[in-house]
Amino acid sequence: MFFKLFAKECGQMLKSLIYYLFLAALIFFYVSQVGSFTPYSEPLKGQEQSYGLKASSDKQEIMGATLAMLAREYEGNSYTAYPVGFYKNVVLTEEKQEEIHQILTACTGMEDGYTEAIRESDGKTPIENGAVIQMTGVNPPILAPAEDLSYDKFLRYMKKADKIIGGGTSYAVDKIKNNAMTYATYEDAKKIYDASLYTDRISRGKARIFCDYIGIILGLLPVFLAVTRTLRDKRSMAREVIYARKASSVTIIAARYFAAVFLIIVPLLLLSVMPTLQCMYYGHQLGVSVDLLAYGKYILGWILPEAAFVLALGFFLSESVGGPAAILVQVVIWIVSISAGGTKLVGSVGWNLIPRFNNDQSTDVWLSVYGQMVKNRLLYAGLALVLMAGTMVIYHMKRKGVLGGRGKNFIHRKRTL
Questions:
Q1: Each residue of 102-149: pLDDT tens digit?
Q2: Which residue, of 26, 219, 288, 389, is most buried by count of CB atoms within 10 Å of its CB?
Q3: Which residues form the ABC-2 type transporter transmembrane domain (predicted)?
Q4: CB contact at 8 A, 353 and 184
Q5: 104, 67 contact by CB (below 8 A)
Q6: CA–CA distance from 31 to each of 163, 178, 202, 277, 411 (Å)?
Q7: Using CA atoms, how far apart are residues 180 and 62, in angstroms rounded to an integer?
């Protein structure tokens, strides 16, 4: 019974205009955002200041850059924050301003005159073809920390400052290291290049950026498929006929749900064929073994739980409160999820529905967040199952006439869920 209904649901969805609009949006987003295959560039020795940037490991430089940033925001009483991913300009009360002042005094040994004490760093300004290159974060202004200020103590003060401002600032412990950037060396660039070829085997890095972009649009679009399917019975006046079917509520809802999941994932697998072939060709040229299953594994492990959750939420809300509410709720979740990472587009995972990894290299960063990524995806897969179980219960109650007051006229026998 399940497979018969599953095939019928797939057929119904393939006749739906909404599904083809979904495919059109998916393909357009893929073509416009992911783009063509870009080979990795092997770094060449002797090209200083051309290997990109990296976070500085110099603790004195990190402290100096962070304190200069805090001092300038303190004197203007204008603090930049992303408390829930959205930009927010924070203006503190006099009491909280005094707390920031105490932090600055403790960290610098100075009561005032912070602006005058801020100096440019000693690093050389990068020059290319006679023109000054402006690179954010490189050789930032410095406010010298007190001589007796340890790095651990500094971190405690910055954690306190972040809390006073309201969170989501550049003074959070996990963001402080990015306040001072420096140029990567040839050795740094070569390590990244080799990891992309031999650890990621080319295709894994490309698959991550594929999932990063596709994850953005699949954090929203599947809800329309769920709402459309739920409303279809109501509009065609077929709900009473469906309520009278011998098939259980579990079978009916499961067939609808898995048909939608199937018709979302299959186009993604088809889209991944071309980039996989490109990775194979590129790997053959370099003599590198390519992971041929990388796209499939990332789509199933990264994208599937997200799409499954969005669909499940759409079905649940459509059955319980109605389609418009389902779309509205998902739009809000999507906006919050997109914004939750703030400006951090590489390695932003946490418990966000739409994790970001907008880089086809950065293997070391990926390995560092992999454990959290697994937990994140398991969470949303679990929530999808819970929501679908709830949808089945609501649907069954409607069939029995407990909800909606309809199904009871068509159910004349005791029926299992």
A1: 999 999 999 888 888 887 654 444 433 333 333 445 667 889 999 999
A2: 219
A3: 180-342
A4: no
A5: yes
A6: 42, 32, 20, 16, 50
A7: 5
**Burial class for 190, CB neighbours closer than 10 Å (0-12, 13-18, 19+):** middle
pLDDT tens-place string over residues 309-350: 999 999 999 999 988 999 999 999 998 888 776 667 788 888
Place of tokens 């992911």: 34
Query: Residues 341, 215: contact at Cβ < 8 Å?
Result: no
Distance, CA of 96 to CA of 102 (rounded, Å) = 10
pTM of the model: 0.77
User: To which residue do tokens 């059955």 refer?
Assistant: 319
Axis crossing angle, helix 249-271 with helix 304-320, rounded to the nearest 10 = 140
Residue type, 148: D
